[in-house]
Amino acid sequence: MSPAWFQELWRLFSLVLFFLLIGLLTGKICFYLLIASLVYIAWHLYNLYRLHRWFTSRKFQPPDAPGIWGEVFYQFYRLQQRNRKRKRKLAAILKRFQKSTSAMPDATVVLSKNYQIEWLNKASRQLLGLQSPQDKGKPITNFIRSPSFAEYLANNDNQSFVNLVSPSNSEIILRICVIPYARNDQHLLIARDITPLHRLEQMRSDFIGNVSHELRTPLTVINGFLETLQDNPPKQWQRPLFLMAQQTIRMRNLVEDLLLLSRLESEASQPSHHPVAVAELLQSIYEEAHLLNGEHHISLEVDENLKLNGQQEELRSAFSNLVFNAVRYTPAGGSIKIYWYQDKDGKHFKVSDTGEGIAKEHIPHLTERFYRVDVARSRSRGGTGLGLAIVKQVLNRHNGRLRIISEIGKGSTFWCDFKE
Ligand code: ADP
Questions:
Q1: What CATH superfamily is the domain 274-418?
Q2: Which residue's CA is minimally distant from atom 18 of ligand 1?
């Protein structure tokens, strides 16, 4: 027990004893004991009143009091001091955080659970056109109105980002990322100006497109002459001419694929969509696959009435790349199955083969340009190394996703999943 409590008990004992003695002397014990209790209660009430006044007066120093009340005042005083210190520290941290985020060149916006603006830094004004404090409390989707941003928020995919044109300046390209924090109760939106990077990417894509375009005509001319020369060549020229023709065909395929890829990359993010009769499209690809190699068992199982909103020629190149790959990488006698169906998850194109299969470590890289598991084998079978990169681009433009399962020696299955 603390000395203050001893003091308090001693005070109570002395008071009771004093009034008890008076009571004994006057013969009115009960009356004087009642007076003692009233005096004691009054003293406590008085100190309670002082405590309350101190709390409400915002005075720094606590009132003076003897005994247990002195101890109570002192403990409250210490608690108050500790709180003030903590408050000052937190305010300093907050100030430092706000100063550093304000100085950041990236737009930083704190959003509530429902994506309402709670706080924003200076760069948000320039990059996103937001104003503080007028825009606080308003939903961020009122300012970033792009459908791809709404889709990005709906998908809640906090790993990725979305590239958009700045709502305040159409010449600025932004990379926007929304990260949840505080147990998903708040979100941090970060928008970075990637205009120089975007320009560089555009230049690279334009350059590839232009070079491919320029190469097209000379290649057609060379190919034409080679075909004429191959009609009746001297014996010693037969093999060189055959090899030259083979290589020009390879170059032509490469140029065509590069051109298609650069067109897919540079055109507006979504093509104009029309209902495409996928069953008919797959029937023609199926027939072409037969012509390509008659030594496979190819089957086609399609939902005749199931259509897909999209761009027919782009879908044709994606699906035919997957089917021709299956033919290319499946030894003679193997079987290839093509499906087009719908289930609760959406619409699916699927092609499975009993070919050579792909090792696990290669699968995540297959859609990179010129990525080939075996370069020599791909070339010998007429591959350009761009087929799956084209498939990925086409699927991106159709809200689709490529899924691959494969086992070495057993075969591969490729799915194109469409949410529609
Ligand atoms: P390529 O023109 O070389 O076929 P792709 O981009 O179409 O280029 O494919 C990349 C690589 O993926 C191929 O080189 C091949 O190694 C592998 N691949 C694609 N499809 C299959 C398949 N059905 N079976 C086995 N390997 C495949």
A1: Histidine kinase-like ATPase, C-terminal domain (3.30.565.10)
A2: 325
Location of each CATH 1.10.287.130 domain in the chain: 197-266
Any residues with Cβ below 6 Å from ligand 1, and which?
A: 321, 325-326, 329, 353, 355-356, 358, 366, 371-374, 378, 383-389, 412
* CA 324 to centroid of ligand 1, rounded, Å: 9
By alpha-carbon position, which residue is closest to atom 19 of ligand 1?
325
User: Domain 104-193 carries which CATH code?
Assistant: 3.30.450.20
Identity at 247, one-letter amino acid code? Q
- How would CATH label the architecture of 197-266? Orthogonal Bundle (1.10)
- Rounded to whole angstroms, the Cα distance separating 371 from 200 reads 22
Q: Which atom of ligand 1 is nearest to the CA of 388?
A: 6
Counting beta carbons within 10 angstroms of the beta carbon of residue 139, is it exposed (0 to 12), middle (13 to 18) or buried (19 or more)? middle
DSSP letters spanning 314-327: HHHHHHHHHHHHHH
Give, for all 420 residues of the chain, the pLDDT tens digit.
Answer: 678 888 889 989 999 999 999 999 999 999 999 999 999 999 999 999 999 998 888 777 888 888 889 889 889 899 989 999 999 999 999 889 888 888 889 999 999 989 999 999 989 999 999 998 899 999 999 999 988 898 888 877 666 888 999 999 999 999 999 998 877 789 999 999 999 999 998 898 889 889 999 999 999 999 999 989 888 888 898 999 999 998 998 899 999 999 999 888 877 556 677 899 999 999 999 999 988 877 889 999 999 999 999 999 999 999 999 999 999 999 989 999 999 999 999 999 999 999 999 999 999 999 999 999 988 888 787 788 999 999 999 998 898 999 999 999 999 999 999 987
DSSP 273: P
Q: Boundaries of CATH 3.30.450.20 in the chain?
A: 104-193
Instruction: Provide CATH 3.30.565.10 ranges for the chain.
Output: 274-418
Going by DSSP bridges, is the β-strand pair 107-112/186-193 parallel, antiparallel, or unpaired?
antiparallel
Beta bridge partners of 14: none
Task: Report the SS3 class of residue 117.
Answer: strand
